[in-house]
C-alpha cells in the first residue's frame, strides 16, 4: 500500500523509481526532475522495508553530496535508526573497504597519495632515469597524466600517447613518433609504479583498481562483500569513467545496483568519463530496467525553454525536453557588459537589491563561472560591498602547504616508509636542506620497520638536529592511538616554525585552519583512516565553515552567504537566483575546444548544467565587445575574427526566449542653474 505522504512527496514516475522491485535499475532523468530526491527516497524506502541501513551504500562524486544525501535520509527516521547508512565518494569507499578487509585486498600499511605527491615521485624517477627522460620532451606532470589517463580510460599506452600527446592523429609520422617514444615512456612509468609499490603508496586510482581487480578475480571476495552489502546506490552515473565502471561491474553480482544519471549533464570527459555509460546500461547490466523521470520541479518554464533550446541545437540527440510544473516567472536576462568590473558591480547590485528590497537572503544567490580564477574581480567587489560569500571548486583543504606540513608527520607515523612525507618533514626544520634530508632518508627507510622511528632519525641525522627531531617524533608516536590529540600535539610542536614559514599570511589566514584540522581529526577513529579518507574528502565544507577561501565572515553571518562556484562544482546545487558569468564568444564554447566536436558538446552540456541550477531568476552576463566583434565579421581586425559565428552557443538566441539588457551605469547629477553665481560670504554671521 502506498501511503499518502509517499504520494505527496513523489509523482507517479518517481514513486515507481523509489519502490522499484526488480534487480538492477538505471534512473535516467533530466535536470531538476528529482534524481536526488529519488535516491534519498529510495534509501529511505529500503530502510522502511526492513533493509538494514548498514547494508546500503550510497556513492557520489563529492563528499559534500554524499553527506547531504545521507543526512536527508537520516532525518526521516527517529534518532539513530539510520545512523549506519553510509555515503562516500568512489575513492573513499574503496579506501574504507581496503581498511576493513586488509587481508582480502592485500594492503595493510599504506599511504594514500594525492596529485602533488604523484608528481614528486615522478620527479624523483625522472632524476634517477635521466637517460630515458632526456630522450623525451615531456614534463613529469605529462607523464603522470598519461599514466592516469591510461588507467582511467582502460586504454593501452600507445593509444593513450596518441590521444594525449598527438591529439589522436593516426598519420605515419605520428606512428613513427609514438614508436620512438613509447619504450622510454614505458620505462619511466614502470619505474614510477615500482617506486610507488616500494614505498607502500596507493594513488587514488590504485584504490579503485585494488578493489575492482579482487572482485573480478575472486569469488570469495564477492561472497564476503555480499554479506555486508545489499544495495549500491550510485549518483551522477553519467560521470563514471571506464575505471569506475570496472569497479561497479562486479557489484552486479554482489548486490543490487541502482544508478541515477542524466546524459545531458555529463561534464567530466576530460577525466575520462563516458556519458554513453548510461546509454548502454541495459546491455551491460543483465537483468536491469531503465526508468525515466521527466517533470522538472526546480525551474520556471522560461528558464527551461532556454535550456531546451540550447540542447536541441546539439548534434547529439538527447531525447530530452524539460517540462516545468511551474508556469509563471520572468524571462532569463542576458546582461551585456563592457568589462569584468561592470559585470561584478552589476551582480553585486542585483544581489544587494534582492537582499534589501525583495526579501531574499544572500544564500538565495548562486554565481557560476567556468573558472574560479575568473571570479577574483567579483570576489574583490563582494568584499568591498560586504557581501558574504563562499567559494566552491578551489583548492582542497588538505592540499594546502601549511596543512601538508603537519600531515607529513602523521603520514610518517602511519607509514615509516613514506619518503615524500619524510622529505617534507625533515626539510621543514631550519638547517636541513634537500641534500641532507635525502641522505638521511636512505638510512631511515632502509630498516625493517622494527626499530622506533625516533631512534632511526637520531642515527640517520647525527647531531643536535637529529636529537631534537628524533625526540619529537618519539614523543608524538605515543599519541598515535588518539588522532585528535596527535594533531594537537603535532601542531603545538610545529607552530613556531609554521608561523615563520608562512609569516606573510599566518595570522589572518592560515592559523585558523588548524582548528579545523583538529576538529576533522577528532572525527576519525584511526590514523590510517584519517590519512586515507581525510585526504580524499574535501574538507572545505566541514561544518559549513569556509575554510580556505571566502570573505571574512563572522560566525553569525556564516550561514547566509552567496555561493560562488565553478560550474563543475555546482552539480546538484540549486538557488532561487543564478548568475552565469561571461557566456561570451570564445568562452562558450571555449576557443580551446573549437576543433574538437566532442569537446564543444561537452561545453554545451556545461552551460546546460549552469542554466538549470536556477529556480526563479536566471541572469547571464556576456562581454559586449566580443559580441560586437562577432557580428561585425570581417571588419574586425582582432583575434575574434577566426571564431565561426555559428559556433558561439548564443549566436542566434531568439529574442522571444530572453530579455536583453545593456549595463549603463550613470550617476544622477543634481540639477543646477545655468549661470554661475557668486557666493555671499556675509550670511550666517550675526555680529551684533
Ligand atoms: N515530486 C516533487 N514534488 C515537489 N518538489 C519536487 C518533487 N521532485 C523534486 N522536487 C524538487 O525539485 C528540485 C530538484 O530536485 P532534485 O535536486 O532532486 O533534482 P535532480 O534531478 O537531482 O537535479 P539535477 O540533476 O539538476 O541536480 C528540488 O528542489 C526538489 O525538492
UniProtKB/TrEMBL annotation:
Protein name in UniProt: DNA 3'-5' helicase
Catalytic activity: ATP + H2O = ADP + phosphate + H(+); Couples ATP hydrolysis with the unwinding of duplex DNA by translocating in the 3'-5' direction
One Pfam family named in its UniProt record: UvrD-helicase
GO cellular component assignments: cytosol
Location of the UvrD-like helicase C-terminal domain: 301-572
Keywords per UniProt: ATP-binding, Helicase, Hydrolase, Isomerase, Nucleotide-binding
Annotated ranges, domain UvrD-like helicase ATP-binding: 8-300
GO biological process, one term: recombinational repair
Enzyme Commission (EC) number: 5.6.2.4
Region (Disordered): 668-688
Record carries keyword ATP-binding: yes
Family affiliation: Belongs to the helicase family. UvrD subfamily.
GO molecular function: 3'-5' DNA helicase activity; ATP binding; ATP hydrolysis activity; DNA binding
Keyword Amino-acid biosynthesis: no
Coiled-coil intervals: none
Superkingdom classification of source: Bacteria
UniProt source species: Pricia antarctica
Species classification: Bacteria, Pseudomonadati, Bacteroidota, Flavobacteriia, Flavobacteriales
Binding residues annotated for ATP, in chain numbering: 29-36
Amino acid at each position: 500500500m502506498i501511503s499518502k505522504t509517499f504520494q505527496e512527496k513523489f509523482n507517479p514516475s518517481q514513486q515507481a523509481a523509489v519502490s522499484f522491485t526488480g534487480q538492477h535499475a538505471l534512473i535516467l532523468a533530466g535536470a531538476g526532475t528529482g534524481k536526488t530526491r529519488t535516491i534519498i527516497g529510495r534509501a529511505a524506502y529500503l530502510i522502511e522495508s526492513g533493509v538494514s541501513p548498514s547494508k546500503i551504500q550510497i556513492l557520489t562524486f563529492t563528499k559534500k553530496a554524499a553527506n547531504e544525501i545521507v543526512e536527508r535520509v537520516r532525518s526521516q527516521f527517529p534518532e539513530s535508526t539510520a545512523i549506519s547508512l553510509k555515503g562516500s565518494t568512489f575513492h573513499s569507499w574503496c579506501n574504507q573497504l581496503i581498511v576493513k578487509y586488509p587481508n582480502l585486498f592485500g594492503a595493510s600499511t599504506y599511504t594514500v597519495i594525492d596529485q602533488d605527491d604523484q608528481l614528486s615521485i615522478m620527479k624523483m624517477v625522472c632524476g634517477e632515469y635521466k637517460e630515458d627522460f632526456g630522450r623525451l620532451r615531456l614534463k613529469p606532470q605529462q607523464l603522470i597524466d598519461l599514466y592516469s589517463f591510461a588507467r582511467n580510460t582502460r586504454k593501452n599506452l600507445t593509444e593513450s600517447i596518441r590521444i594525449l600527446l598527438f591529439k589522436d592523429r593516426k598519420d605515419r609520422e605520428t606512428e613513427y613518433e609514438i614508436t620512438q617514444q613509447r619504450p622510454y615512456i614505458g620505462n619511466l612509468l614502470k619505474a614510477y609504479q615500482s617506486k610507488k609499490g616500494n614505498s607502500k603508496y596507493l594513488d587514488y586510482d590504485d584504490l579503485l583498481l585494488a578493489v575492482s581487480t579482487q572482485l573480478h578475480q575472486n569469488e570469495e571476495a564477492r561472497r564476503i562483500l555480499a554479506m555486508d552489502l545489499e544495495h549500491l546506490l550510485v549518483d551522477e552515473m553519467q560521470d563514471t569513467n571506464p575505471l569506475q565502471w570496472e569497479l561497479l561491474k562486479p557489484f552486479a553480482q554482489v548486490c543490487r545496483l541502482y544508478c541515477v544519471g542524466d546524459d545531458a549533464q555529463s561534464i567530466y570527459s576530460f577525466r575520462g568519463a563516458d556519458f554513453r555509460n548510461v546509454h548502454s546500461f541495459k546491455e551491460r547490466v543483465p537483468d536491469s530496467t531503465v526508468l525515466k523521470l521527466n517533470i522538472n520541479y526546480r525551474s520556471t518554464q522560461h528558464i527551461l525553454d532556454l535550456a531546451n533550446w540550447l540542447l536541441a541545437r546539439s548534434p547529439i540527440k538527447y531525447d530530452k525536453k524539460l517540462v516545468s510544473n511551474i508556469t509563471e516567472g520572468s524571462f532569463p536576462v542576458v546582461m551585456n557588459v563592457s568589462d569584468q568590473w561592470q559585470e561584478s558591480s552589476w551582480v553585486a547590485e542585483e544581489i544587494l537589491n534582492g537582499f534589501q528590497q525583495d526579501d531574499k537572503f544572500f544564500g538565495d544567490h548562486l554565481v557560476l563561472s567556468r573558472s574560479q580564477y575568473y571570479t577574483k574581480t567579483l570576489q574583490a567587489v563582494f568584499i568591498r560591498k560586504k557581501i558574504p560569500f563562499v567559494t566552491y571548486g578551489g583548492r582542497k583543504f588538505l592540499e594546502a602547504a601549511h596543512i601538508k606540513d603537519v600531515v607529513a608527520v602523521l603520514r610518517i607515523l602511519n607509514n615509516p616508509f613514506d619518503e615524500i612525507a619524510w622529505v617534507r618533514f625533515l626539510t621543514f626544520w631550519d638547517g636541513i636542506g634537500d641534500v641532507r634530508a635525502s641522505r638521511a632518508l636512505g638510512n631511515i627507510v632502509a630498516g625493517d620497520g622494527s626499530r622506533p622511528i625516533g631512534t632511526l632519525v637520531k642515527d640517520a641525522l647525527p647531531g643536535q638536529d637529529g636529537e631534537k627531531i628524533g625526540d619529537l617524533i618519539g614523543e608524538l608516536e605515543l599519541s598515535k592511538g588518539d588522532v585528535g590529540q596527535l594533531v594537537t600535539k603535532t601542531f603545538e610542536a610545529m607552530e613556531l616554525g609554521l608561523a615563520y614559514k608562512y609569516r606573510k599570511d599566518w595570522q589572518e589566514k592560515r592559523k585558523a585552519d588548524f582548528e579545523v584540522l583538529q576538529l576533522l581529526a577528532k572525527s576519525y577513529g584511526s590514523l590510517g583512516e584519517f590519512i586515507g579518507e581525510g585526504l580524499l574528502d574535501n574538507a572545505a565544507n566541514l561544518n559549513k565553515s569556509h575554510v580556505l577561501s571566502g570573505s571574512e565572515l563572522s560566525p553569525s553571518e556564516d550561514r547566509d552567504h552567496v555561493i560562488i562556484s565553478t560550474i563543475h562544482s555546482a552539480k546538484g546545487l540549486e538557488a532561487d537566483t543564478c548568475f552565469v558569468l561571461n557566456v561570451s564568444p570564445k568562452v562558450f564554447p571555449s576557443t580551446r575546444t573549437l576543433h574538437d566536436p566532442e569537446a564543444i558538446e561537452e561545453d554545451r552540456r556545461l552551460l546546460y548544467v549552469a542554466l538549470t541550477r536556477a529556480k526563479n531568476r536566471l541572469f547571464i552576463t556576456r562581454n559586449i565587445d566580443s559580441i560586437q566583434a562577432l557580428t561585425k565579421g570581417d571588419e574586425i581586425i582582432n583575434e575574434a575574427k577566426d571564431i565561426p559565428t555559428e559556433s558561439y552557443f548564443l549566436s542566434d538566441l531568439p529574442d522571444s526566449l530572453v530579455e536583453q539588457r545593456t549595463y549603463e551605469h550613470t550617476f544622477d547629477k543634481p540639477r543646477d542653474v545655468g549661470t554661475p553665481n557668486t557666493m555671499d560670504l556675509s550670511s550666517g554671521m550675526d555680529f551684533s
